[in-house]
Design brief:
about 280 residues, Rossmann fold, two-stranded antiparallel ribbon, about 55% helix, elongated, P-loop_NTPase
Amino acid sequence: MINKKIFKLIKKNKINNILFYNNKYLININSIKKIIKYILCTKKKKICNKCLSCNLYNNNNHPDFLIINSLYYKNNIEFNKNIKIKKLKLLNKFLNFSNICSKKKIILIYYAEYLNKNSFNYLINFLENKKRNLLIILVTNNIQNVNFSILFKFFKILYKKNNFKKKILKNNYINKIILQLIKIKINSSFKKFLNIIKNIPLNIIINVILKFLEDIIFFKFTKNVKNFLYYKIHISFLSKKIKNIYIIYNIINIINNKLDLINKKKKFNILYFKEILLNYLYIYK
Ligand SMILES: [Zn+2]
């Protein structure tokens, strides 16, 4: 959706205002947030998930990032309501502090069609006086209702769903792997397992196994799961089968080491993979 050229322009402060729009389908705010996380990350090639910025971001506590939205809740049901000036006044407060951990400050406002006339004027005025190193991102599902001066001032990007396809594919992968993890038995042949998952990238398979194990442990202590809610019943069942929960920590370590090895060699090694599956099965012994 955003190519390298645009990222460069953002970095060089040539693009300071972006409007994501699409009238055909609802824009997934999470995918916009991912772009923001990428821009904020202090390692530049991809989201590192290790730097201070990524950590603060993951904890919803990033000092250089502000969200203003039109959402409100009544009886747990989500509504959109006009964004009043009162909410926008947070912008000034936010900018009073200098950047804390990222090079840029980013403000995300959605949905732009819910900015009322006063708020529009406030925002326009704000844009004219704003500092550099600030990126404002607006999101709208209804571009006709967005004030003309905003359209004029913002760099417009048509939101595309291409990420969505990938996500569905990834979800299919995950389902395939988990179903196998649930079914596989000690002494079973790995051939069938391998056949079913042979087109899935190895790092995805291993990460799913790790997350699955994490859920089994998590369930043991909390009676809940955090990664694969959909499989809670299975995870609960497997979790009960395990007598010594601490053995899973060891197994996770072993699998993590294997993952490192595989990442280094970048080649699919069937032996490594069998070892990983054997380790996975070992917890049910
Ligand atoms: Zn990072």
